[in-house]
């Protein structure tokens, strides 16, 4: 498996600083979400080549997937994001779904989402990039977010029917939403492109809460998964020290 850090791990530092730190720690990628905030995409691409580590994941410009009236704007954002990914050699793009629309039947919103994703799929297939839909918890962090459960998220992906439209499985969110983390994180492996991890409660680095990440990551690895696991969390201690502990206390036992 490959391991990434997320932008913001080093507060106030830019993407180049993060990439240098990722290289220093022997990790494999950076999740940089708002690609449009980068002042010069081609400069970043050159820095990635120099350092030998690059951005592994970004996000699309967010517009609701459940609101059919916003489909054209969402698709325009997708096209812009794909062009940015080509410059940066990014191979996965995360999309949230947006909040549930009041007064609109849930099945109508789900059909709108599936149709939009079906229209996106050929664009990602042609570019060789995976679009990742992300379910989020509504109890603590994202009240009203449309997709929250693994089973419904998988049903949406199956209806889209493209190997370039999958899920990012965030262990922190799914622990809050439904539990059964190892069962769902491994049972839906064919529909998952990469994982996010953080401990619960608190959304801090692994080892600060209730989740047994040695067992969780071992189970994921046993499926043959060789994609990215992103450390999407805050830190209770110095970031460098937290990453060292993560490598020594968790990753060394997984590998």
Automatic annotation (TrEMBL):
<protein>
    <submittedName>
        <fullName>TIM barrel protein</fullName>
    </submittedName>
</protein>
<dbReference type="InterPro" id="IPR036237">
    <property type="entry name" value="Xyl_isomerase-like_sf"/>
</dbReference>
<comment type="similarity">
    <text>Belongs to the hyi family.</text>
</comment>
<dbReference type="InterPro" id="IPR050417">
    <property type="entry name" value="Sugar_Epim/Isomerase"/>
</dbReference>
<dbReference type="InterPro" id="IPR013022">
    <property type="entry name" value="Xyl_isomerase-like_TIM-brl"/>
</dbReference>
<dbReference type="Pfam" id="PF01261">
    <property type="entry name" value="AP_endonuc_2"/>
</dbReference>
<dbReference type="InterPro" id="IPR026040">
    <property type="entry name" value="HyI-like"/>
</dbReference>
<feature type="domain" description="Xylose isomerase-like TIM barrel">
    <location>
        <begin position="19"/>
        <end position="245"/>
    </location>
</feature>
<keyword id="KW-0413">Isomerase</keyword>
């Amino acid at each position: 498996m490959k391991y990434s850090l997320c932008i913001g791990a080093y507060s106030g530092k830019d993407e180049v600083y993060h990439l240098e730190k990722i290289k220093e720690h022997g990790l494999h990628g950076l999740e940089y979400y708002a690609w449009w905030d980068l002042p010069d995409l081609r400069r970043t691409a050159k820095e990635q080549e120099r350092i030998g580590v690059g951005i592994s994941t970004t996000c699309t410009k967010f517009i609701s997937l459940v609101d059919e009236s916003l489909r054209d704007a969402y698709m325009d954002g997708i096209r812009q994001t794909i062009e940015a990914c080509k410059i940066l050699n990014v191979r996965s793009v995360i999309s949230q779904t947006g909040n549930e629309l009041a007064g609109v039947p849930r099945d109508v919103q789900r059909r709108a989402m599936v149709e939009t994703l079906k229209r996106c799929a050929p664009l990602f297939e042609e570019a060789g990039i995976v679009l990742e839909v992300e379910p989020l918890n509504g109890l603590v962090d994202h009240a009203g977010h449309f997709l929250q459960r693994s089973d419904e998220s998988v049903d949406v992906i199956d209806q889209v029917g493209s190997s370039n439209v999958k899920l990012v499985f965030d262990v922190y969110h799914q622990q809050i939403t439904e539990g059964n983390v190892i069962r769902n994180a491994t049972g839906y492996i064919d529909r998952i492109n990469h994982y996010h991890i953080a401990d619960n409660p608190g959304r801090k680095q692994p080892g600060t809460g209730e989740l047994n990440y040695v067992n969780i990551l071992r189970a994921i690895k046993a499926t043959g998964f060789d994609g990215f696991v992103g450390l999407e969390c805050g830190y209770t201690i110095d970031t460098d020290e937290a990453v060292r502990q993560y490598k020594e206390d968790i990753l060394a036992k997984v590998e």
